[in-house]
Amino acid sequence: MSGTNTLSTQAVKKDKKRARNEDPFVDILNDSVNKFGNMQVVANDNIRRLDYYFKFETDSAARKMKVFGELKRIHGLTNDERVKLGQLFIQNQTNTDYFFTVDDEFKLVFLMQLLR
Questions:
Q1: What is the dihedral of CA 43, 47, 48, 52, to 10 degrees?
Q2: Dihedral Cα 35, 37, 38, 42, nearest 10 deg
Q3: Could you tell me the CA-to-CA distances from 14 to 30, 99, 108 in Å, in that order?
Q4: What is the pTM (predicted TM-score) of this model?
Q5: CA-wise closest residue to 86 among 67, 108, 63, 106
Q6: Which of 71, 73, 60 is nearest to 115 (CA)?
Q7: How far lies 42's CA from each of 29, 89, 116, in Å?
Q8: CA 16, 19, 23, 26 torsion: positive or negative?
Q9: Where are the domains of the chain?
Q10: Backbone angles phi, psi at 103, to 5 degrees
Q11: 99/31 Cα distance (integer angstroms)
Q12: Collapsed DSSP state (helix, strand, coil) of residue 39
């Protein structure tokens, strides 16, 4: 008799499972969960982009703060040239970034070209 109970219990479970799969509420819930998951993937991607942007901006700001100190270290520039170069760097982030990648032995050449 216990074999019969087991079979009937399994049949009831299958019927409940089948009924749940055909329930429109379950379909709506599944769609909502899938949409939420997709939105979370997009949000994570946007957060990564923002993180990259803010790190870049932070690095850029730090470089701008270092510019004048770096210009003071370079021999062969007048104070007027240092001030003018500082203004040029503040106006053009690309030049600032490049300045910090150039080897020290080439910085004066680069700076003199900017002043022309």
A1: 150
A2: 130
A3: 20, 71, 81
A4: 0.50
A5: 67
A6: 71
A7: 20, 36, 47
A8: positive
A9: 24-115
A10: -60, 150
A11: 53
A12: helix
Q: b/e per residue, 22-45, with b = 16+ CB within 10 A?
A: eeeeeeeeeeeeeeeeeeeeeeee
Question: Which token pair is 35?
Answer: 């949409």
For 30, the token pair is 């599944």
Quote the CA–CA distance of 92 and 61 in Å, as a whole number.
Answer: 12
Render pLDDT for 70-116 as a digit per residue (tens, 0 to 9).
999 999 999 999 999 999 998 888 998 899 899 999 999 999 999 99
Question: What is the Cα–Cα distance from 88 to 111, expressed in whole angstroms?
Answer: 10
- In whole angstroms, what is the distance from residue 93 CA to residue 6 CA? 75
